[in-house]
Specification:
Helix content: 40-55%
Number of domains: 1
Structural class: alpha/beta
Number of helices: 7
Number of strands: 7
Largest sheet: 5 strands, parallel
CATH architecture: 3-Layer(aba) Sandwich
Strand order of the largest sheet: 3-2-1-4-5
CATH class: Alpha Beta
CATH superfamily: HUPs
Shape: globular
Amino acid sequence: MTDIHPTALVLFSGGQDSTTCLAYALKRYRRVETLGFNYGQRHHIEMQARKQVLARLPEVLPQWRERLGPDHVLDLAVLGQVSETSLTREMAFQVSESGLPNTFVPARNLLFLTLAGALAYRRDLSALVTGVCETDFSGYPDCRDDTMKAMQLALSLGMDRRILIDTPLMWIDKAETWALAHDLGGDALVQLIVEHSHTCYVGDREHRREWGYGCGTCPACDLRAQGWQRWRT
């Protein structure tokens, strides 16, 4: 880390990836705040999960307790209103005519990063940490490295301030994400992710599996389960 970016805002959904990114940010940056978005997501339970993770993370990583600052939540209901996707509507998960899975919410990450940049500007935070990646990105074009570089340039120009978009998961898969979590916080962090984070697209908190709670069949559960198995073997 350089002194140019001593502070960070983590885009924090309460899922496996963003929880790992939060632990990463707490190790890397001197002051860290978090941001969540309520956009009418079908798996709205993640809004409760993120509260649990934020409450318990300082117990798992007490050495960085003083670095964790305020949490922020923005209401983006308008995104759900304009998105006919399986993340914002009751519909089956499938690949659309465009070739993208219908879990793709158009412009979601672009809007998230724009608003995160505005909040970071107001809070005097110089980096945005997000869990997007090209390895397990399900074909989402707004998770690509090129997209992140373009957004970093646009935000830095538009804010007239250098803003870093830090993507620690960009080139790793789910097995390596589990491994990174273990490297950052040991078994305690892994167990926190298993018990309290939420990734399942249908919001299933009834079925407890070895890798956490979820339906076990949606695309998010499938990626998480496969990653767990590869990491554990």
